[in-house]
């Protein structure tokens, strides 16, 4: 790739040569304008990046209309960059990425597990070893590029004549041609087969997380780099527990007497069943925080908390004796009012703060 200083020097030389006041050519003004446009692109990092990726004719091209009017100006910039995009061809074509989705039990996502997965991917053909040639034969050197995978083409432009290096069309850049194709892979060199892997699932994974296994996707053609395997995690719902980030949320139902006097209840946690004390005077909608009983933090230390939301069941069918006792109790209690004034949603939000 040409340095910024080399580009500036080339611009100054060309600008002097094709300036309308100096050049006697009838199209000198148009050429001078193109030279300025070219320098504007090559001296701007963003526009130069666009050229590196798409060339001079890609989407959103920074080059003006009619930029090819003088012998393929885009190839001139390829020459600036030492052959540029044409030299990027390589002997092997990289393989594609592969994606699989696996279902994970709720607690396996919390604490991690090891999962055995199977998926289909392209691997080198066992018959030809990935060469694509029939048994007893071998690929021959491409006559078009003499095995280099690249061809040179001389092109004329306002900068003079340049040699542009491009990927060979005959062999696709591999430098070899398969004349007698392997019967199993039909000359492709790859076959789609069933692959099996044991994957360690780290603790704390969220639903929808994707894990990447480098190099476990489709193999590349002719020794090209294999793609990656992406594993998308689908976490199944739990019957009782819900997850909010690194925290666990669940509900417990108690009666009026238990709320007033306090009680102990057995609740489900990610660690199993456990006894939790409900203090006397607990109000409906209150949250009891079980510190460190949540989800292990993903690839970090520590755990979240478990929030147990208390719901109080109001009796609807009272016996005559129960009604009498409730009435006597009510006469000894202050009038009911919610001095807190917060909605249930507000109480839930405050519990996590």
How would you summarize the topology of this molecule?
Layout: H1 4-18, H2 28-42, H3 45-54, H4 73-80, E1 98-104, H5 106-111, E2 113-124, E3 140-141, E4 150-157, E5 160-167, E6 176-177, E7 190-201, E8 210-213, E9 229-235, E10 242-244, E11 247-255, H6 256-261, E12 263-269, E13 272-278, E14 287-290, E15 306-313, H7 320-332, H8 344-351
If you consult CATH, what is the topology of the largest domain? HSP40/DNAj peptide-binding domain
Tell me the fraction of residues in β-strands, as a range: 25-35%
Mean pLDDT: 81
Q: What string gives the helices and strands in order?
A: HHHHEHEEEEEEEEEEHEEEEHH
Largest sheet geometry: 4 strands, mixed
Query: In what order do the strands lie side by side in the largest sheet?
Result: 10-11-15-14
CATH C-level name of the largest domain? Mainly Beta
The CATH architecture of the largest domain would be: Sandwich
For the secondary structure, the number of strands is 15
Task: Tell me the radius of gyration.
Answer: 36 Å
Q: What is the SS-derived class?
A: alpha+beta
Estimate the helix proportion, in percent.
10-25%
Question: Low-confidence segments, ≥5 residues, pLDDT <50?
Answer: 53-59, 65-91
CATH superfamily of the largest domain, please?
A: Urease metallochaperone UreE, N-terminal domain
Number of helices: 8
- Counted up, domains total 3
Q: What spatial form do the alpha-carbon principal axes imply? A: elongated
Q: What's the end-to-end separation, in Å?
A: 55 Å
């Amino acid at each position: 790739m040409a340095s910024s200083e080399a580009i500036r020097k080339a611009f100054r030389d060309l600008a002097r040569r094709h300036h309308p006041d100096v050049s006697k050519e009838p199209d000198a003004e148009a050429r001078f304008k193109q030279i300025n446009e070219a320098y504007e692109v090559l001296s701007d990092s963003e526009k130069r990046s666009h050229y590196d990726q798409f060339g001079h004719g890609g989407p959103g091209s920074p080059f003006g209309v009619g930029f090819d009017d003088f012998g393929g100006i885009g190839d001139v910039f390829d020459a600036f960059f030492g052959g540029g995009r044409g030299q990027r061809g390589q002997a092997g074509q990289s393989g594609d990425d592969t994606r699989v989705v696996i279902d994970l039990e709720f607690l396996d996502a919390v604490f991690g597990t090891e999962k055995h997965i199977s998926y289909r991917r392209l691997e080198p053909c066992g018959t030809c070893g990935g060469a694509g040639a029939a048994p007893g034969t071998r690929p021959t050197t491409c006559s078009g590029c003499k095995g280099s995978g690249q061809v040179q083409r001389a092109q004329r432009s306002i900068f003079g004549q340049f040699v542009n290096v491009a990927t060979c069309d005959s062999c696709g850049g591999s430098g070899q041609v398969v004349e007698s194709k392997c019967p199993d892979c039909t000359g492709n060199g790859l076959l789609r087969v069933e692959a099996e892997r044991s994957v360690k699932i780290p603790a704390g994974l969220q639903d929808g997380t994707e894990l990447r296994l480098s190099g476990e996707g489709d193999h590349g053609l002719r020794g090209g780099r294999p793609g990656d395997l992406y594993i998308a995690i689908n976490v199944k719902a739990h019957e009782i527990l819900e997850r909010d980030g690194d925290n666990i949320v669940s509900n417990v139902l108690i009666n009026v007497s238990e709320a007033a006097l306090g009680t102990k209840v057995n609740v489900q946690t990610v660690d199993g069943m456990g006894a939790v004390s409900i203090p006397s005077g607990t109000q409906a909608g209150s949250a009891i925080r079980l510190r460190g009983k949540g989800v292990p933090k993903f690839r970090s230390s520590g755990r979240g908390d478990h929030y147990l939301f208390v719901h109080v069941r109001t009796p609807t069918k009272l016996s005559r004796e129960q009604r009498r006792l409730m009435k006597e109790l009510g006469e000894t209690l202050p009038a009911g009012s919610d001095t807190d004034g917060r909605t249930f949603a507000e109480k839930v939000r405050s519990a996590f703060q």
